[in-house]
Amino acid sequence: MVRLPLTPADVERGRRLGALLRQARGERSMLAVALDAGVSPETLRKIESGRVATPAFPTIAAIAAVLGLSLDALWAEVGPAHGGVAAARRGSGERLVS
């Protein structure tokens, strides 16, 4: 299978995702979060730094669960039509409807 090159939008989404995960991790160590999520610290570091712009869904789901992030809210921030600041203001318990 040939992998298509990343678009600038893909790269930007990866940067936004990494920044959100880094912010949500707060003072927790990268090692602790990675181990709790079942991913390598190197994988988490690459995602947080934006070097992996399109990580696998199960990886993001595991990290989000450890950080207490809603996948709906995360997608609202980094998806193609991200909600920006408005989505960040929503509570983590609020579900988004498609």
Q: How much of the polypeptide forms β-strand, as a percent range?
A: under 5%
Unreliable runs, pLDDT <50, ≥5 residues? 83-98
CATH superfamily: lambda repressor-like DNA-binding domains
Question: Which CATH architecture?
Answer: Orthogonal Bundle
Shape: globular
Q: Write down the domain tally.
A: 1
Task: Kindly state the number of beta strands.
Answer: 0
* Spatial separation of the terminal alpha carbons: 31 Å
> What integer is the average pLDDT?
84
> Given the structure, what is the number of helices?
6
Radius of gyration: 13 Å
The proportion of residues forming helix, as a percent range, comes to 55-70%
String of helices and strands: HHHHHH
Tell me about the biggest sheet? none
